[in-house]
Specification:
By secondary structure, this protein is mainly alpha-helical. The chain has 15 helices and seven strands. The chain folds into two domains: 31 residues, no CATH class; 220 residues, Retinoid X Receptor. It is globular and about 75 Å long. Keywords: Receptor, Transcription, Transcription regulation.
Length: 336
């Protein structure tokens, strides 16, 4: 009863009689004030409790430390460590892949900014795309041999610019490791099948850009649904398009290698977009970018129809004069 009276007195401290004042003072002296206990953090992030006299309650820190040590060895902690390491390894692989693709891309951008034209003798030097691949020529590496400098950009018409785009396709194809490992016949078939789609991406990328900044964003044409692609998305999408493994006339060995490479680039694209936008928005953006590949191949079929009509009806002589013969099958129907 005495304890109850003290608690009631504590709850109602505004009583006016003397006995209540004495009871309230006694009860308040037995209970710690909010300022009597101060919680501090030690340099080791251990929580220690200090009272108003400066003494330490070691029981809590001693019981917490074994729990921390035990948590490090728990299956959940080990699983989390493994996940973190896997994410770090995937991040390193993703950006290493992007860097490898960007090296060739910056060489191409620099080349188009130098106001050069293809030498006319290169048109008749090779008659098929197979000969181009066998010769191992590189218009980026042997610039002086295959091109010459012009004074102004307007001296280079669209047909001449188209030739530059076509010859740079060789370097773009060779930037894909799996493309270099398959047989020559498979290289020719794959390049002729996907070449027009890669050509469309290249022409839209360089058509209005002279000086390129990696931080800038650019717009592809209407067949890409006017979607903004950053440089990393563009490079990985182009690599996925080149590694088009559903080509029916590739050998089984080439299909497996190209499919593996395509899945690797798709995985890098997914990981990059999740890092950039978060899980949910990254997955949505991934679906949008992959859908652009389908639109590219649809635009490629339209390009084949348009160029075939030009070559057969409206501009027969001009088309064959302005187009290097190794690239004619690629631009007309995708086959050789």
């Amino acid at each position: 009863m005495e304890l109850l009276s003290k608690q009631k007195t504590l709850i109602h401290p505004l009583a006016n009689d003397d006995s209540t004042d004495q009871s309230y003072q006694l009860a308040s002296n037995q209970m710690p004030s909010p300022m009597d206990v101060v919680e501090l953090s030690s340099p080791k992030n251990e929580r220690k409790i200090y009272d108003k006299n400066g003494t330490t309650n070691q029981s809590q820190s001693e019981t917490e430390e074994p729990a921390k040590e035990g948590a490090k060895d728990s299956p959940l902690a080990k699983s989390q460590i493994g996940i973190d390491r896997a994410i770090s390894a995937k991040t390193a692989e993703t950006f290493d892949t992007i860097n490898q693709l960007s090296c060739v891309q910056f060489r191409v951008v620099k080349f188009f900014a130098m106001n050069r034209k293809v030498r006319p003798e290169l048109f008749n030097q090779y008659t098929s795309f197979r000969e181009l691949l066998e010769s191992r020529i590189s218009i980026l590496s042997d610039m002086e041999k295959f091109t010459f400098q012009i004074e102004h950009q307007w001296e280079r018409n669209w047909d001449q610019l188209k030739c530059l785009h076509l010859f740079t396709l060789l370097d773009l194809f060779r930037s894909i490791p799996a493309f270099c490992t398959i047989d020559l016949d498979d290289q020719v078939r794959l390049a002729n099948y996907v070449g027009s789609a890669v050509y469309l991406m290249s022409t839209n990328f360089h058509s209005n850009i002279v000086k390129f900044d990696a931080e800038n964003e650019f717009k592809l044409s209407k067949f890409l649904n006017n979607s903004n692609l950053c440089l990393e998305e563009f490079l990985l999408l182009r690599a996925i398009v080149i590694c088009h493994s559903s080509v029916s006339f590739l050998s089984q060995n080439a299909k497996s290698q190209i499919q593996f490479e395509s899945e690797r680039y798709a995985s890098c694209l997914m990981h990059f977009l999740r890092l950039k936008h978060g899980n949910e928005k990254g997955i949505m953006r991934y679906a949008e970018v992959i859908h652009m590949a389908e639109q590219l191949f649809y635009a490629q079929s339209k390009l084949h129809s348009h160029l075939t009509f030009m070559a057969m009806v409206t501009h027969q002589d001009k088309f064959y004069e302005a187009t290097p013969s190794p690239f004619v099958p690629m631009l007309l129907n995708g086959y050789e």
